[in-house]
Amino acid sequence: MINVKKIEQLTQNKFVNLFHFSGENKKGHKSNYFVASRAKSEDELKAVTRKDTPDGVSIYALYGEKKDKVVLIRQYRYPIDDFIYEFPAGLCEKGEDFKEAAIRELHEETGLVFTPLDVDPMFEKPRYTTVGMTDESVAKVYGYAEGNISDKYQESSEEIEVVIADKDEIRRILKEEKVAVTAAYQLMHFLSDDEPFDFLNI
Questions:
Q1: Least C-beta-crowded within 10 Å: which of 64, 103, 173, 196?
Q2: Are 87 and 179 contained in the same domain?
Q3: Average pLDDT in the 188-196 region?
Q4: Whole domain around residue 29: which residue ranges?
């Protein structure tokens, strides 16, 4: 395990910051590592708090009378200068329950009303998104969406198209489009499972 000797905050931004970790391993190798984080200060880093509190939520919502469609968003992302398919997602506000965050975020991004399921906590436990570069963790929330699509609640900075996808469209998306990795894996299971949420009953 690395002995972290110093952490230096390099930026002071609202949504993401860069931290420089200086450390040394058992072999005497000295390292300089850069970590992106949602933390506002060093004291909030997960390497410091050791708490597994979710920074955000990812929402797996089924839609339609037969619950046979998935709510996706096609969103512009700066790092690839292109659009990518994802599950609706967003950050938890300070002190906000992650399921309440999921209800709020789905409505803001899509205009839809979300009803979360009560599931075993192991399915909702915060998971790390790209732990090689960030300490960001996200809780997955499962449930059903209803209502009409609307962009009136989106922030002016967001470039989001709401997509209600059946199995044929999901198959096309996976073959032809850019897809976030966690969404891609879940959508592959959606294609093969008769009941998409059966795995939640394990």
A1: 64
A2: yes
A3: 94
A4: 3-49
pLDDT tens string 2-50: 899 999 999 999 999 999 999 999 999 999 999 999 999 999 999 999 9
CATH (domain of 74): 3.90.79.10
Q: In the beta sheet, which residues pair with residue 145?
A: 63, 114
pLDDT surpassing 70 at residue 202: no
**Do residues 19 and 118 share a domain?**
no
CA geometry: angle 130, 72, 101, nearest 5 deg: 70
- Structural domain count of the chain: 2
Same domain, 72 and 142: yes
Please give the angle made by the CA atoms of 171, 68 and 120, to the nearest 5 degrees: 105
